[in-house]
Every structure is written in structure tokens, then in C-alpha cells.
Amino acid sequence: MALWNNGGTTYPDVLYTIGLLLCALIGIPLNSLALYRNYKKPPSIARTLYLLLQVVDLGTCLFICPSVAYTISTPKDPQCFEDEKDLTIQFTRNCTTNYISVGIKKPSNFRRAWSIFCFVFATSPCILTGMLAMTRYYQIKYPFRHVSKRLVVGI
Fold first, then answer.
1. What's the pLDDT score for residue 106?
2. How many Cβ atoms from other residues are within 10 Å of residue 7's Cβ?
3. Which residue in 88, 116, 114 sits closest to 103, CA to CA?
């Protein structure tokens, strides 16, 4: 599913593929080190949120970056309609659940499961970062109050 042609051999396709693979190769050891470092800290709500965020980032580096690089470097999927012209829709079609609008006639169960997996890994960092920011704000505003799990779930 090349971005700029049907074969995935143009310069932008190769550049995107190399960039995604480099992000994965750099992100895996760095996220692993950060995960190990935060795992050794004493338990707290912020530590738990950081650990969840780092697990999601590590999963993104392990699974999504190589998968998107492979998808970009392979030829266009034969299940797509011939009149599909939008490059953005072509690029994101494997990570969306609305297959009818992007041109895949009948997705397999694996594609549906993969789209749910990609959706969770794409949206989780935003949610976890927001929760972490709200927890930090609460700790700054009320420094002598204990941050409980009920408060974080309520946020």
C-alpha cells in the first residue's frame, strides 16, 4: 500500500519506511530503560500513570511502527477500490474501523482486531497524559492532600 505509487519504491515511501524503522529501533531500548527506571521507584499514582504511558509507547514502537513501515513498503492492497485517490485515507486505512468509507469491501477478522489494537494504542497516550497532568495539577494545588485512586478514576 505505497503512499505515492503502487509499488512502494519511490523516494518518499522509502524515506517514510526508514524513518519509522529508526523510530522503532531507537524507541524500543529507550522506552525499556525508562520503564525499568520508573519500575524501581516507590509506588505512587504518578508512577503508575508513567508506567502505563511507557508500556503504551513501547507497544507502539514494537508493533505499530514496523507494521506501518511494512504497509507503506508493500504494493497496494487488491481489496481497495480502483478509484481511491486520497493519500491520507490510503495511509490510515489499516488503523481505522470505518472500512466502508476508505474502500475495503470486506475486512477480515484479523484486520478488525488490528484496527481496534491500533485505535487503543493511538488514543491511550492522550488519555494517560491528560490524567497525569490533572494528577500533577491536583498535587500542586493541594500539596498536603493524598492523591487517591478514586480521585484519578474520577478525573
1. 66
2. 12
3. 88
3-state class (DSSP) for residue 104: strand
> Hunting for cell 478509484 — which residue is that?
83
Query: b vs e for 104-141, b when ≥16 Cβ sit within 10 Å of the residue's Cβ?
Result: beebeeebeebbeebeebeebeeebeebbeebeebbee
The whole-angstrom separation of Cα 3 and Cα 151 is 45
Grid cell listed for 53: 504511558
Q: Grid coordinates 500513570 are at which residue?
A: 49
Percent of the chain at pLDDT > 90 equals: 12
Q: Please check whether residue 73 is in contact with residue 17, taking contact to mean a CB–CB distance below 8 angstroms.
A: yes
Is the pTM higher than 0.70? The answer reads no
